[in-house]
Amino acid sequence: MGWYDKFVGLFSYDLGIDLGTANTLVAVEGRGIVVAEPSVVAVKKGTNQVLMKGQAVGDMAKIMLGKTPGGIEAVRPMKDGVIADFDITEAMLRYFIQKVHGKRGPFRPRVVIAVPSGITTVEKRAVKNSAVNAGARKVYLIQEPMAAAVGAGLPVAEPVGSMIVDIGGGTSEVAVISLAGIVSSESLRVGGDEFDQCIMKYIKREYQVLIGENTAERIKFQIGTAEPQEAEEVTMSVRGRDIQTGMPRELEIRSTEICEAIREPVNAIIGTIKVVLERTQPELAADLIERGICMAGGTSLLRGLPDVINRATGLPVRIAEDPLTCVARGCAGLLDSIDSLQQIFESEGD
């Protein structure tokens, strides 16, 4: 870190940001996670005009999903881990940066942002421009699996193979890392949101009942499972709207049904893990027999998922400590190593 950055650092908080499809997390080195809110913005319908400041972004906006009056809509500006709406993403980033930085001083913060490993050059530029316009002094991009691995405490700079599987809201990132570089990786645009959509489609198909995104997410976390567990089957009451009558209706849903509903995205993630393993050099693959697979991201907490991956690969599987915050903590943890670990950041020319 140069003398100027050290000086400015006295008057600004440098930030690590996990700009996710479902949630945005902001971390500050030494303070941990300081913001964790949904990536949702409330706007006037048909425009990019954000509603009243402080009531239009994050937690407040997510409450509005599916419940907004005619002139308002709650939108997710991120899709599949990348920016779908530039203006709204910029407004969302500005809100989160100002919420953390507050009245820290006239100097703008440096920001490390995690991006999917399959992101295009145009998409990288969009993320950087959004962050700069939202108030960042310098923007560094890092691939999500690398950030997740750092946040999970894996020895990314050592000459050993480490495997990370990070299942976010819009993407699943699978990578084998060694010597501060990604040796083999795949970015699959399937994540927690796809699980929610599968649950919504299943209930519509089997019961002719419509449910919203928030309800599907609650179902996933409360009774969702990646494998049938008849001995531990649990149920949940679900409310939605009957397609035929148009009236509210209450259902009792079983965990085995949700297992069936989400089978396709689970199999897609397992298939991606196998592809990355097949591409991994023999010496690094040998390391993985002992070190196994580390899982991060909110959907890694789905019941039975580590066991299913273990059976499919034969490798030990563990969930990182606090898997939801791994990426953001990894970004913040790298702020002091930007100069010495320059090779792990996306180059400025990208």
Essential attributes:
alpha+beta; Nucleotidyltransferase, domain 5; 6-stranded mixed sheet; 5-stranded mixed sheet; 12 helices; Actin, Chain A, domain 4; about 25% strand; about 350 residues; 3 domains; 18 strands
Would you spell out the secondary-structure blueprint of this structure?
Layout: H1 3-9, E1 15-19, E2 23-28, E3 32-38, E4 41-44, H2 59-64, E5 72-75, E6 78-79, E7 82-83, H3 86-101, E8 110-115, H4 121-133, E9 138-143, H5 144-151, E10 162-167, E11 172-178, E12 181-188, H6 192-207, E13 209-210, H7 213-223, E14 235-242, E15 248-254, H8 255-261, H9 263-279, H10 282-291, E16 293-296, H11 305-313, E17 317-319, H12 326-333, E18 345-346
Parallel strand pairs: 1-8, 8-9, 10-16, 16-17
Antiparallel strand pairs: 1-2, 2-3, 4-5, 6-7, 9-18, 10-11, 11-12, 13-14, 14-15
Helix pairs in contact: 3-4, 5-12, 6-7, 9-11
Number of strands: 18
Low-confidence stretches: 7-11
Q: Which structural category do the helix and sheet elements fall into?
A: alpha+beta
CATH superfamily of the largest domain: ATPase, nucleotide binding domain
**In the CATH hierarchy, what is the class of the largest domain?**
Alpha Beta
CATH topology of the largest domain: Nucleotidyltransferase, domain 5
Task: Give the spatial strand order of the biggest sheet.
Answer: 3-2-1-8-9-18
Number of domains: 3
Q: How far from one another are the termini?
A: 22 Å
Spell the H/E element sequence.
HEEEEHEEEHEHEHEEEHEHEEHHHEHEHE
Q: In this structure, how is the largest beta sheet organized?
A: 6 strands, mixed
Radius of gyration, Cα only, in angstroms? 21 Å
Note the overall shape. Answer: flat
